[in-house]
Write a structure and sequence with these properties.
alpha/beta, TIM Barrel, 8-stranded parallel β-barrel, 9 helices, about 30% helix
């Protein structure tokens, strides 16, 4: 299986996750941040997708300041693989020139068959020059979350491997999963992949505004992804469930054959250190805190996280002496 190569061990293991970086300008913006170790670019669907409502009349994002939670419809707005092919090879060369990793995240739209679309997109992502590909198993497809269907994910991983071979690095992004499902993935139903990205968002029913009684965000079926600091404990617990071994103890670097990436619910460098050091996450990043909805200065946030991570690392080294 493929091995993720971290280009600069002096960097904090911080990456920006899919959902933030799609356009050439966004890729270039994050390439200008020397502290960043990796970019997960996308997600990209095969065809152009403008979101649930291409007219823009529907609200697809809502930030709840009181509960520190973001609610985002499965909008996916992205140019599609054909249009992205015009700039991704050039953009990824730029990412590599500054010593960052480039992972391309790919997704199937709700009306598409992921077993047909995603193996093709995995091959395309590697043709673009990416260091690896992330398969989006966190989005609804055919009425269910793809990652919750263990048999379907097994078949998909096998199809992707058949298409790209054993050498490339392949990860799957999962949303919040029941521990019984995680037990299957880490036991008899292991996937033919290298990495697991946990967790981007949690599927939650959208709350109603206290004054109007209406849903601030309108989505098909009344569901959206919840992210931001509100899912911090969910993200930590989900990662811990993957890091457990047979005796019920959590061991750093206990990956059960997968490299673990922690996404979401992270808002400082001390938490990044915790997940890296004690839960065994290979790299740690966040989407919502770095989203254009939340900040116009992602570099400032990443530099702060890096300083805090370095402080936590030095503190833990001193304690071990």
């Amino acid at each position: 299986m493929g091995e993720l190569y971290v280009p600069d061990t002096n960097r904090a293991p911080i990456f920006v996750s899919a959902g933030v970086v799609k356009t050439e300008e966004q890729i270039r913006q994050f390439a200008r941040i020397p502290e960043l170790a990796a970019q997960v670019i996308g997600s990209f669907s095969e065809n152009e997708w403008g979101g649930n409502d291409p007219t823009g009349r529907e609200t697809i994002f809502w930030w709840d300041e009181r509960h520190q939670a973001a609610y985002n419809a499965v909008g996916l707005r992205n140019p599609g693989s054909k249009a992205a092919s015009d700039y991704l090879p050039r953009s990824i060369r730029g990412v590599h020139s500054v010593g960052q990793l480039a992972i391309i995240s790919v997704t199937a739209l709700q009306h598409e068959d992921p077993q047909e679309v995603l193996p093709r997109l995995a091959e395309w992502a590697l043709e673009m020059g990416a260091d690896g590909v992330e398969i989006d198993g966190s989005c609804p497809n055919h009425g269910t979350i793809l990652g919750e269907d263990v048999a379907a994910m097994q078949a998909l991983a096998a199809s992707v491997r058949q298409r790209v071979g054993d050498e490339p690095y392949v990860a799957v992004k999962f949303s919040d999963l029941p521990e019984a499902v995680i037990d299957r993935y880490t036991g008899r139903d292991r996937l033919a992949i290298d990495g697991v990205s946990l967790i981007n968002a949690v599927r939650r029913q959208v709350p109603r505004g206290p004054r109007t009684g209406e849903q601030p965000i309108k989505v098909n079926g009344g569901f959206a992804g919840q992210s931001g600091p509100a899912i911090k404990n969910i993200a930590r617990n989900n990662l811990a469930a993957w890091a457990l071994n047979g005796d019920g103890e959590i061991h750093a670097e206990w990956h059960l054959g997968y490299q673990l990436w922690s996404v979401g619910g992270v808002d400082n460098g001390y938490e990044i250190h915790e997940r890296r050091q004690y839960l065994g996450a290979h790299m740690v990043g966040a989407a919502q805190a770095l989203s254009p909805y939340r900040t116009q200065q992602p570099g400032t946030i990443i530099r702060q996280w890096t300083r805090e991570y370095d402080e936590a690392l030095k503190s833990s080294l001193n304690e071990s002496l």
